[in-house]
């Protein structure tokens, strides 16, 4: 029994590429879910997906100039994401259009431009690598960069944590304290761009947002407190990362989609059996006699 457990759960990580993939996915799992929690609280759940597409042209341009150089592609992705965020915000302020509508427009333009650039400068294999990532191909340089970006995100998020919470709950109070809400909003969007840039090497530009949003949305079924939401989201992301890599190893399936599908399974399980607002909770509430205490 123990030998079988070791063979299934421990032995795969004896390989160097599996160890690097696990460390990279764990680093992303610590940084991405808290960002997703704040996106959900701010009613910006789909902005993460838009920003994931916004980094694609920069990643593609870095690929054209330097090949599969993670520093060049990451720098291009950061600049592209910040540019799109700035343009969407400017259009929203000048025209009065909602920011999410402006962001959706720019992300469609970015997606088309990025795919066109990669297609012009590479093959279908290159396009697949950029769009869907390859976490098992993470080398020491990539791992160091991912860990550095994730650490920067966690530290910065800790510094602006109170401002983000207040902006979500009472933006007028934040202004009364002399803190511009737009500054906190801009820093937060910058962190989202950094997070997605760190994740594109492992999960690709199309699925990097999955590790950010799926654990965050699943956590809403288990906790009503912000600390609980963040803790549960991180736990789900860590389990999905390790489990997805193991499934990928044993079943010979793509690792990135396996991680995101496992996170998706966590969301579906939470929606069905979670402590708050889940299907099971609603059925129990309906079945309880009138005036009886709510079942726990």
DSSP helix fraction:
over 70%
Which class best fits the helix and strand makeup?
mainly alpha
Euclidean distance between termini CA atoms: 35 Å
The major β-sheet equals: none
Question: How would you describe this structure to a colleague?
Answer:
By secondary structure, this protein is mainly alpha-helical. Helices cover 80% and strands 0% of the residues. The protein has 15 helices and no strands. The protein has helices spanning 2-10, 16-41, 47-54, 56-66, 70-95, 99-121, 124-132, 140-159, 161-169, 171-176, 181-207, 210-219, 226-251, 255-273, 279-287. Helix 8 packs antiparallel against helix 11 (181-207), helix 12 (210-219) packs parallel to helix 14 (255-273) and helix 13 (226-251) packs across helix 14. The two termini are 35 Å apart.
Q: What is the compact description of this entry?
A:
The chain has 296 residues and is an all-alpha fold. The chain has helices at residues 2-10, 16-41, 47-54, 56-66, 70-95, 99-121, 124-132, 140-159, 161-169, 171-176, 181-207, 210-219, 226-251, 255-273, 279-287.
Write the layout of secondary structure elements.
Blueprint: H1 2-10, H2 16-41, H3 47-54, H4 56-66, H5 70-95, H6 99-121, H7 124-132, H8 140-159, H9 161-169, H10 171-176, H11 181-207, H12 210-219, H13 226-251, H14 255-273, H15 279-287
Write out key terms for the chains shown:
single chain; 296 residues; mainly alpha; 0% strand
């Amino acid at each position: 029994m123990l030998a079988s457990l070791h063979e299934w759960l421990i032995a795969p990580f004896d390989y160097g590429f599996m160890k690097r993939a696990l460390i990279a996915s764990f680093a992303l799992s610590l940084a991405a879910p808290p960002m997703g929690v704040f996106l959900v609280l701010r009613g910006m759940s789909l902005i993460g997906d838009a920003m994931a597409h916004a980094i694609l042209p920069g990643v593609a341009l870095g690929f054209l100039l330097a090949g599969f150089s993670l520093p060049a592609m990451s720098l291009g992705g950061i600049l592209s994401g910040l540019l799109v965020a700035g343009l969407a915000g400017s259009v929203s302020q000048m025209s009065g259009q909602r920011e999410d509508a402006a962001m959706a427009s720019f992300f469609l333009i970015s997606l088309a431009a990025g795919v066109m650039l990669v297609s012009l400068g590479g093959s279908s294999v290159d396009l697949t690598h950029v769009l869907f990532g390859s976490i098992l191909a993470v080398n020491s340089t990539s791992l160091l960069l991912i860990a550095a970006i994730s650490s920067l995100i966690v530290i910065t998020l800790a510094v602006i944590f109170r401002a983000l919470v207040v902006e979500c709950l009472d933006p007028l109070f934040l202004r009364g304290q002399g803190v511009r809400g737009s500054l906190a909003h801009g820093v937060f969007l910058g962190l989202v761009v950094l997070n997605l840039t760190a994740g594109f090497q492992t999960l690709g530009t199309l699925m990097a947002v999955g590790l950010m949003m799926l654990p965050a949305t699943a956590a809403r079924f288990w906790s009503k407190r912000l600390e609980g939401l963040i803790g549960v989201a991180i736990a789900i992301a860590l389990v999905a990362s390790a489990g997805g890599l193991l499934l990928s190893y044993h079943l010979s399936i793509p690792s990135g989609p396996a991680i995101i599908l496992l996170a998706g399974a966590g969301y579906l399980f939470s929606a069905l059996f979670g402590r708050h607002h889940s299907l099971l909770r609603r059925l129990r509430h309906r079945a309880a006699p009138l005036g009886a205490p709510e079942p726990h």
